[in-house]
């Protein structure tokens, strides 16, 4: 006698239809989200690509034309300015932010100071960037004049709460038994944090810092008050007015067509810069991840 | 299948599956009580906040012996173990009362540094917890803390520790690969190697085999027997057979309901040479636990 045949085929039912419908809706949602991204990228490349690629490195190395009517490349000073300001801001915000997060998570716990610091950091994430710029203007620019450092100060204030928040989250994710293992070997608390906890949390902290840097690199308002509007190359961080890509975009976007071209070029450069930053950070964290 | 050893009870309970009393290895000489005492506990009590987790523990742990703590869940065995190397310092609200002496020194005296204590008294945890670093860096972690930075010395220490933990042959070709790529049993042996790399005097083991399969468990038990000559070992175990197989002395803990506070507080019931405790327990609670009437 033959055994009864087992029918395991999917049964037509409302559930499988709903499943396919939902999958379709989610794919559609992704497509819709990608549309503005693709639109922005394509217009950047279309409008800015020309001037950036025309005589290749010239766009990044040439001076900004003194007369905006003059066509042709040159955003070198702005590239330098953005790099200086962002680097200085990162150098200030990242160590402070990571160490602050270490204090909050490892030492502060629920103490009053820790709760105050956490609250203040949350409040700072909501402060408008132009208010930060005004704050730096009153505190620094009035006394010391325009400089890249002033801009870096403002950007560091904007980056700090993001770095603290992301780092604290990552530290919280490090499992307690790793700390226990380290203590059981006779390590002090600070040694444990430096050699076990921070390395374990590092990829997440780097991503968090990267988000903060990407946000800072594109800020315009705070720089208006602090950096000034130079057009020449200025490699000094502490002296003399400087400029930045974001500010040049602002200044040139509504100017004559020749200047507008340069504004588009600057916009494309800024996006490429952020892209390179993200890529580098991915590679760095990838190396850590591979050693795991 | 019939149990190999007859159950030493009078009336077998019909609902309980047959319980095998622990098999004792032959020719086990009684552990020497002339050995110096490494730990001396006097009426130790441990509190978590207001909750008294353990009360009235008085015992001595002797050098170069394996002492096992057995007992049902929640009876305070791990709590007492963690008090030996001041791991309760890391738990907010935990407090140890009574006297816990290590070679005569009160471990909880205010001038005693917890990190110094832990360099001499190591611990292996229930779930293997290797650092997310290479195998080499895991073992070298302890020596590096103690100031050893010379590469050749570190190489020596790493090899010696891995050989002592019976792991060298399996990992000698991949010392710089991540420790997380090892199997569970290998990871636990790595944790043991890491603990003995700093050459402590005592190794505390909190249910080291509970997350491992029987073969890995057997290897670790074998390891413990080899390490006994160099270290003093205290092991917490749920597995009575393991305690019977490996330890020289056994302490039986149980949790008792305090009718006044309605809390379960752990207490030390009996502490004796393993052979005597399993064949001729003095306390009725011990006998009940060993013969499987509860727990």
Task: Briefly summarize what is shown.
The complex is a heterodimer of chains A (292) and B (295). Chain A is an all-alpha fold and 292 residues long.
The backbone outline of chain B, from C-alpha atoms, is globular
How far apart are the first and last residues' alpha carbons of chain B, in Å?
23 Å
Spans where pLDDT lies below 50 across 5 or more residues of chain A: none
Tell me how many strands of chain B there are.
10
Main sheet summary of chain B: 10 strands, mixed
β-strand percent of chain A reads under 5%
Q: How many domains, in number, for the residues of chain A?
A: 2
Q: What percent strand of chain B?
A: 25-35%
Structural class estimated from helices and strands of chain B: alpha/beta
The H/E string of chain B reads: EEEHEEHEHHHHEHEHEEHH
> What's the alpha carbon Rg of chain B, rounded to whole Å?
20 Å
CATH superfamily of the largest domain in chain A: MetI-like
Overall pLDDT score of chain B: 87
Number of distinct beta strands of chain A: 0
Main beta sheet of chain A: none
Low-confidence stretches of chain B: 1-17
Description:
- The complex is a heterodimer of chains A (292) and B (295).
- Chain A is an all-alpha fold and 292 residues long.
- Chain A has 11 helices and no strands.
- The longest helix of chain A has 40 residues, at 14-53.
- Chain A starts with 13 loop residues before the first helix and ends with a helix.
- Chain B has 295 residues and is α/β, with parallel strands linked by helices.
- Chain B is built from 10 helices and 10 strands.
- Chain B has helices at 77-84, 114-120, 135-145, 151-164, 168-171, 184-197, 214-227, 240-246, 274-279, 284-290, and strands spanning 37-48, 51-62, 66-70, 94-102, 105-106, 121-124, 202-206, 232-236, 249-258, 263-273.
- A 10-stranded mixed beta sheet of chain B has the order 5-4-1-2-10-9-3-8-7-6, with helices on both faces.
- In chain B, a hairpin with a 2-residue loop joins β1 (37-48) and β2.
- The radius of gyration of chain B is 20 Å and the shape is globular.
- The two termini of chain B are 23 Å apart.
- Classes of the chains: A mainly alpha (292), B alpha/beta (295).
